[in-house]
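<instruction>
Derive structure tokens from the sequence
<data>
Labelled lines for chain and fold:
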Amino acid sequence: MFKSDSTFYYLIGILVFFFVIIYFSVNFYVPFLNSPKSFGFNIQGTRIDPPNSMYFSAKQDVKAIIRTSIGDIHIDLFEKTAPKNVNNFIHLSINNYYSGTSFHRAVEKFLIQGGDRNSVNLNSKLIGKGNTGYFINDEINWDSLDLTKKKRDELTAKGFKSTPNLETPKFKRSMVGMANSGPNTNSSQFFILVDDLEVNDERLNYLNGRFTPIGIVTSGFETVLEIEKQILSFGKMISIRKVDILM
């Protein structure tokens, strides 16, 4: 039998062992959890299954209306240039995944971002880190974007790949793109560009080739600008009541 002091240290050793196991499990098997620049898992509600079929045909023109607490944003979706990502956006919209979420982030004269289910709880420390539990691959044709060899090499080194047989538009003011935390990690979060950017703008060049464009705002851009103002000036996240899909 162990002596009383030996037993004590033996139990302490077991507790330390389990603590180490738990610590490394969180940091290695949930890789996005501790990264402030990426998003990890959704703690609000239940997971949603990925779409198992296409919601639209090749001949359909698909549009969306993001209905926020301060106005509507009308979007013409790029169903031909990013069919899988648009299909996922439709899937989440018609299943009310976006209902109750918020535009939680704004970068001045650049973009606003929303679509994280964690933002249902406005006090959650995980806002900006949530996803659906599955990922959609990138749909970006580098040839369409006329990327330089240097840019292609940089993206390739980070694990990104060009998608053939698509016509990817270059990012510009009012366009909508899928947020990601690396190659092929598109999920639910999306952003809208709020300002005219020069072709050689470093931030714009960072987006092209790395993020998938899924649409462009056709009406309600004043709402987009007001969302940017509310977040930056008052720290107020703007609620998304629902997203309607028109086909």
